[in-house]
Amino acid sequence: MSLTLAQRLDRIRVRMSELEHWRARETVQISDWTFDGEPIAIGAAWPRKDGTVSFAASARVPEHWPVEETRLSLNLGGESLITITDEAGNETRLGLDPYHQEFRLTSPRIKISSETVARLPFGEPVRAPRLERANLLWLDGPVDRLWLLLRQISEAVDTLEGHEVIPHLIDIAEAAMRGLDWPSSTAAYIARMSPSVGQQKIWRLPELETAPESLNQGQRASVVAAYDTLIKELKQLRERFPPQGEIALTGHAHIDLAWLWPYRETRRKMRRTFHTALSLMEQSSDFRFNQSTAHYYNQIAEDDPELLKRIVERVKEGQWETLGGMWVEPDTNMPTGESLSRQILYGQRYFEKTFGVRHTVCWLPDCFGFSGALPQLLRQGGMKSFFTIKVNWSETNKFPADLFWWEGLDGSRVLTHTFDNPMHGYNGFVQPDCFVPTWRNFQQKDKHETTLLAVGYGDGGGGVTPEMIAREEQLRAFPALPAARWTKVHDFFEGAHKSAAEKELTTWQGEIYLELHRATLTSQSVVKRLHRKAERSLITAETLAGLAYLMGGEKPASLENEWRVVLKNEFHDILPGSSIAEVYADSANELDGVIADGQAAQASALAAIAKQLPSGSGSNVLVVNPSLDERPMRLTLADGSHVSSRDSIAPLAIAVIDIASLKARPGLSASSSHLENETLKVTLAKDGSISSILHKPSGREALEGAGNRLFVYPADKPRNWDAWDVEEDYAARGEEITALDSIELIENTAHRAAIKIVRTWRHSRITQILSLGANARRLDIQTELDWHDRRAFLRTLTDVAVRNARATCECAYGVVERPTHSNTSWDAAMFEAPAHRFADLSEPGFGVAILNDAKYGHSIRGNVLGLSLLRSPIYPDPLADEGLQSFTYSLMPHEGSWHEGGVREEADDLNQPLLAMAVSDRAVGAWQPIKTEGIDAALSAIKPCEDGDGLILRVYEPAGRRGAFGLTLPQGWRNEGTVSILEEPMRDVPVDGLMPFQVKSWRISR
């Protein structure tokens, strides 16, 4: 009777499974364990499971066991960093997790200790932790190797899907197993096989031998012969069926800085993972391992300096590859351009100082979409290559390339690669059923002969296993599979650049939008607002200190330490809102601290500015404009009163003003149903929504319908990824909140008027204050939420009297245009998309913008401007955004396009108002320490140089225009030329002028 190939493969699998139960020749249990110093038995429950616990024991290898064939087999009940101390007192540290439970020994007498938590790699608690297993085993190496090789042949047959090599692979596997001389003694055989799945199903097993015999020398010789013959026959088949494709393997352990565990646990994950990776390098000189994130190495320097020293040595030897060039792997949708610049600046400087290397590859495998500002910043930061795989997660449209040029807003390009590994993505495995589909999915194989594949357990860390090392060695002999070799990521990209120089590659222009995880623009909005405030606090503090220095004050102090805290909290599972509650408690505390430090630095800088001004008298106020825009004089004074005068202040200017001279711009009027000044007339409907916004200079009605309609969507329950996703049908069940608790005019002065509206929805309260200053061009809607409902999505919608097929959204260092229609599947998929401080819909001559000081999720469909205000998912934080939070958004009609109408300038003013400080001993006057000429530009930073006594002035062109642009410096200061974001000369970039979306920096000194 002839069997099918599938049946023969099933038979091979059943027979080879037997080998696993003979891989240990002998086993000895390790007893006499202690738990936090107290005795504990094997199998016993932990006395406590909170925090970090310690286990300890000692063991002796039986005298007839070769130490090199001995393994320590442990399962302590949770993740651990174990320390094995040998007879000479030498310590070896290794990570213990579900994938790393067997360890080599170098000494017959050892002591074992641990730092253990009752958690699994993805943060899952071990509800009833026990000391599960602690053994020494004498490994039968030939059996172990043959068992692995047969498994790999089985996997290859499965994944090659009808390839003509398959019958040959089955033939040689069958022949190998027929050649085995295998034990059959009843007592030993039953004892050996008792752990198998089939035997464990039996009602009652017979009494088992405690130390069943292993293979004798003749039987073991048959195993060795079978293995050697298989390898020889595989190599012969490889000549007949050569490798199809080539894979560059990089060992990897993606470690989320914080996610389903708090950061303090990540610090332990780093040590466990890094020690494991180093141990594998001792076993294989071919193995290569990469690890990104400057912050991790900086933390290791504090927690385990000896570990960092060993990593530095391996970096020099070429086995350990530091990677990425950034402080962390950040979200790139929400940070400002200046934050992204600092990620690169501080990351590259740290890597260069600590390891003597500067990176040319940006490594962001797991972020949720990518800003079009990145290519320019990467090139200025010394990086010409970019890696991610997240684009393959898009649910609607397949990204058209996986080796391509990515062109940013300004035209800068980086060579980009992504691989599509269906087996856990960047946490790949070394095995045939991972190699074959990864190569098959590589779209640009006609342009370049190799694709990258990162392998190793990740997200929760752990990394590569000893089995993966052994698998790679065996697979070198296999036919038909893609050839795979350990490679440094930088070397892979150098080869890809050579191919790109010879063959034309696809170019992708602008942002890379991920058609998934759109809710990360809104979830955990409290921390998003704190992050926005922290960024702005530091940028403004540096700007003020720089102005004081330009006026004759002291050189500003570096705020790098504060910036590092902000950059850490931009990590791609913190800022997006996809972590547990403990992460956000830590993040809020850290960002609150940065905001306080930034405000203290601002106060100190204002005092330093005042010190440089001429003395005088009177009840005056010192005002500073920290932007490159001329600003109307809008102030909030120390007593909380508002000023909205007819005056203005020049860009980066300082003024001392007599408070009494600050007269309100005329024309402000208000009632409980309207607000009006010289520019806007706002009328409210009876339900508190806005029925009309008349833009008086143009005579245009801004609304076509109603404005600031509040909708809640109580069916915000995605298929997967609760905090990450919002489904496209969320609006199918929407409730407009029209009921009013109260509406009243609460402020009506010559300078400002305001209406307060209070609403209740189910268990939550929404309080909004609509305010209009006498000189305002926008209507501010200050919002306070007291939220106590789960899985509800709160949004504001405004129907505007404007029509355009595309809307403009602010992004880092520029803007991106997005469709307002659903003509194609690509358009339809962009139903929720990121914007920074504004989104605008304009037609020739007129438009309406929605501005904000804390939000990122936007939708613009047809003529409806939508802003997402809050989500309340239950996983991984059941109380996400529960309780109080506040923020402000604004509606702004304008003439002309968004940049002609001053939308960005108003958004700048909303997010960073003018600075004001009462002074009684400074003379009235105005000063402008530094001036700019030419086209409009936006300020990114005025900061102290990293090296030397000068300042770095960084601006960007925000609207896609080009033209002359220059600086006029104070007497005694000189412009030393353009520099990159790494603050190094850019000699091919002219000192004057700006190109579309260009980010340009100058070093200035005195």
Q: Report the top-level CATH class of the largest domain.
A: Alpha Beta
| CATH-level-2 architecture of the largest domain | Alpha-Beta Barrel
Rg result: 33 Å
Mean pLDDT: 97
Strand order of the largest sheet: 32-33-34-35-44-41-40-37-38
- Give the CA-based shape: elongated
EC number: 3.2.1.24
Enzyme class: hydrolase
Protein name: Alpha-mannosidase
Keywords: Glycosidase, Hydrolase, Metal-binding
Describe what this molecule looks like in 3D.
- With 1006 residues, the chain is of the alpha+beta class.
- The protein is 26% helix and 29% strand.
- Strands 32-33-34-35-44-41-40-37-38 form a nine-stranded antiparallel sheet. The protein has a six-stranded antiparallel sheet with strand order 3-2-4-9-6-7. Strands 31-30-36-43-42-39 form a six-stranded antiparallel sheet, with no helix packed on it.
- A hairpin with a 6-residue loop joins strand 48 (938-944) and strand 49.
- Helix 2 (141-160) packs parallel to helix 6 and helix 16 packs antiparallel against helix 17 (581-611).
Index terms:
single chain, 1006 residues, Jelly Rolls, 7-stranded beta/alpha barrel, 7 domains, 9-stranded antiparallel beta sheet, 19 helices
